[in-house]
Each structure stands twice: as C-alpha cells, then as structure tokens.
Write a structure and sequence with these properties.
Helix content of chain B: over 70%
Shape of chain A: globular
Largest sheet of chain A: none
Shape of chain B: elongated
Strand content of chain B: under 5%
Structural class of chain A: mainly alpha
Structural class of chain B: mainly alpha
Number of domains of chain B: 1
Helix content of chain A: over 70%
Number of strands of chain B: 0
Distance between the termini of chain B: 60 Å
Number of domains of chain A: 2
Strand content of chain A: under 5%
Radius of gyration of chain B: 18 Å
Radius of gyration of chain A: 22 Å
Order of helices and strands of chain A: HHHHHHHHHHHH
Oligomer: heterodimer
Order of helices and strands of chain B: HHH
Number of helices of chain B: 3
Number of helices of chain A: 12
Number of strands of chain A: 0
Largest sheet of chain B: none
Chain lengths: ~300, ~110
C-alpha cells in the first residue's frame, strides 16, 4: 500500500518520507520473522541514511515529479509479463519455515549445529557472514566501495568556497538543536563502536556500525552548518579510509594465502583455530565498518556540497 | 506486591495506548501543521515512555532493564528536539500558526501544491 502510494504521488518530498516509512515497516517485518541483524541493518540504512541522502539529492532537483511523456502501455506490458512470471515461480516455492525446503538441507544444519563450536561466537549470523561466507561478504564490501567510487567519478566533491562551517541553512541561533546534538553525538559514536565490536554476541557487525558512525557525522553536518563535517573529516582522508577498509579485508585473505592456507581461512591467523576465527572475524568486520563509514560519508559529501537551487 | 506491579504496568500500557491513538487521530485531523507536529510529539514523547515503563514494571532485574531505560532516555531527549526542529524549519519556510480559524490570512502559503 505504501509502495502504491509512493508510486502515485508526484510530490517527491512526500515520496522520500514514504520510503522511510516503508523501510521502517520492512524492518519491523524482519523482526517479526526473527531476523534481528537484518532488521537492524534495514532500519539503520533504509529509515536512516538513505532518507537523508535522498533528501540531499532532492535538493539538487525539482520537488515535483515531471509527468511521463512516453506511452506507458509498453512498460505496463513488460511489467505485467515479468510480474506474472515471478508469481508463477513463487507458487512453486516451499512454504515459509518448511523444514524440507532445500535451503535447510545441505550446509545450514552444519552451520547451526557446529557454528558456535567452530567459530566460537554465539551470534550465528556474524559467524556465517564473516567466516563461513566470508568471501561473499568481501564481495559486498567491494560493491559498497565501487558504489562510492562511482559517486566520486560522477559527482566528485566540490570545494565550495561559499561553504563556511558554522552557518546553518536555517539561520539564527540554533541553541536547542546544537546543545542536544552536542550531548548526543558522543553517545551515537560510542553506540556505533559498541555495535561494531558487539556483533559477535548480539545483533550488530560492521555494516550497521559503519552506517551508525557515519550518521553521527551527517547529523553534525546538518545541525552545525554545511561543511562543518568536512572540517572534521576531510574528503581526502575518506578516500584513503574507504580503500583501507577494503584492503584490511582483502589483506586478511592474502595473509592466509601467504601462510599456506586458503584465501580467508582464518585458522591461519593464530595457532588455535578458534582463536584464529575470532581474530579473523574481528579484523574483517573492522574492514567492513571502516569501508561502509567512509563510503556513506563520501556520498553525503558529494550530494550535500553541490550548491543550492533555491 | 506483584499484583500492584501488574496493575501499575497495565495502567501504564493502557494510557500509553490511549495516547498513541489520540496522537494518531490528532495527526490526521488537526487543521494546522503546528498542531499536527504537536500531536506527533505527544505520541512519541509521552506515549512511548509510558509504554516502556509499563514494560519495565513487568521485567525482572537484568541488563535488559538498563537497556530499556536508556532507550526511554534517548526518546525523551530526541523527540522534543525533532519537534522543535520541524517547527523551526516550518517557521523559517514562512508558514505561520493558525491562530483564528476563520482568518485565513494568518496561515502561510500551503506549499503542498505544485
């Protein structure tokens, strides 16, 4: 219903808000399905950062959607055929939670039964994400890095001389906002670090932590004037940090190769294999967190610094 | 003791729910942006801590209790700030509060039309 409303509305500001609501509801749905880590990431990314980023990009274009000029019948036909094919495929899928479904058969029982013993951490999601399926997570991190690269290549970060840190768009003495943000900001950053290192035991991990950490800086930039975050974390640093994040992850893998084992085999990192798993997951999540943080902040810089169209 | 705690918890949860409903009704039916923002503020600043206290009274002494208290403090700190930010931004945009319901001049331009 929200999706239909988002499509039908032509006020893009309202559409961005609806997207945020949609993400929050999806996060609640994930919680209902007992997928806490995914719900956490969805809430942080979907209802948090992308709303801000979409609002920043809305700043650069018009608020009202231009009416489509082409004949919509062909698009309707394509969408209808694809939708029908997807529905037909879904009818054949196993039911939700069906124990005889193929996804529950081959590797999953091994993960569930031996995960805690082999990897040594209670949070199975992090164990699967960072250890059993570490290669896929490496791919995800590289994809995030590539997205940041694409934004850099397409938009770049303009060094706008008009931007003076300390001046807010609304003007006036922002006493209430600035006082509250001054108190909240260290807590936000602390929480980001907590989520990063607590991923072994509870919900958390590198992706959520990177997003939360970056959101702290975005909040600082929004409240304390355009360009104030840029004074704290210059874009040049962020370029290098993003690369360093991916390098840490890849570096762990290459180290395992050099030590004689397979790529991203964490037992090569320490004499005790479980200890090696701990160390490997820690390093890898750190790489993910650093990469995600830098890319999100880079994208925010790219959007927010591009002048006003008032 | 347990009965009193349960009664208190039930009362908190009930009133929190009532406030959520009134906040929702206010959000939809209030005539002016500023009154709507106030309605949504009530929903989050008063109803959420009431609901959370209702839950707190049913929990045992554990680390989760501290986490719930921290969430309540965070909500109490951030929501009034957000309401203030929304109202301030709207004032900056030019809209003024509706003071006399018949006097359309005291309401700013409604920017929700293209």
């Amino acid at each position: 219903m929200i999706a239909v409303a988002a499509i039908r509305l032509s006020d893009l500001f309202a559409v961005v808000m609806l997207f945020g609501v949609y993400s929050l509801l999806t996060a609640a749905l994930f919680m209902d399905l007992d997928a806490v880590d995914v719900a956490f990431t969805e809430a942080a990314v979907g209802a948090g950062v992308t709303t801000v980023l979409m609002l920043s990009s809305l700043h650069l274009t018009k608020r009202w959607e231009a009416l489509p000029r082409r004949n919509p019948l062909i698009s309707l036909l394509v969408v209808g055929v694809t939708g029908a094919a997807l529905v037909y495929a879904v009818l054949d899928a196993p039911g939700l939670g069906d124990p005889s479904a193929p996804v529950h058969q081959h590797v999953t029982p091994r993960y569930i039964e031996q995960g805690e013993a082999e990897v040594g951490m209670p949070n199975l999601v992090t164990a699967v994400l960072a250890s059993y399926r570490g290669y896929d997570t490496f791919g995800e991190t590289v994809v995030i890095f590539a997205a940041g690269l694409a934004v850099m290549l397409l938009l770049g970060i303009k060094d706008d001389p008009r931007l003076r840190p300390g001046e807010s768009a609304i003007g006036g003495d922002q006493l209430v906002l600035r006082s509250v943000v001054k108190v909240l900001l260290p807590l936000i950053l602390l929480y980001g670090l907590y989520v990063q290192f607590h991923g072994d035991f509870g919900a958390g991990g590198g992706f959520q932590a990177g997003v939360i950490f970056a959101t702290g800086f975005v909040l600082y930039d929004l409240v304390f004037g355009e360009g104030s975050a840029r004074a704290v974390v210059p874009p040049g640093w962020l370029h290098r940090l993003a690369a360093i994040g991916v390098l840490i992850y890849g570096g762990v893998g290459v180290y395992s190769l050099l030590a004689g084992k397979a790529f991203l085999d964490y037992s090569a990192l320490a004499t005790d294999p479980v200890h090696g798993q701990h160390l490997g997951v820690l390093l890898v999540e750190l790489g993910v967190g650093i990469a995600v943080f830098s890319v999100v902040l880079l994208i925010f810089y790219a959007f927010s610094g591009r002048g006003r169209r008032r | 003791m347990t009965a009193i705690l349960e009664l208190l918890s039930g009362l908190c949860l009930f009133f929190g729910g009532v406030l959520c409903v009134t906040g929702g009704v206010g959000l939809l039916r209030m005539p002016d942006f500023f009154s709507r923002v106030h309605a949504s503020g009530v929903t989050e600043t008063l109803a959420t801590p009431l609901l959370l206290s209702g839950l707190l009274l049913q929990m045992e002494w554990s680390l989760d209790m501290v986490k719930v208290v921290m969430i309540m403090l965070l909500v109490l700190a951030t929501n009034p700030t957000a309401t203030h930010a929304m109202a301030k931004a709207t004032l900056h945009g030019g809209q003024r509060p509706l003071v006399f319901p018949d006097d359309k001049d005291s309401v700013g331009e409604d920017s929700s039309k293209p």
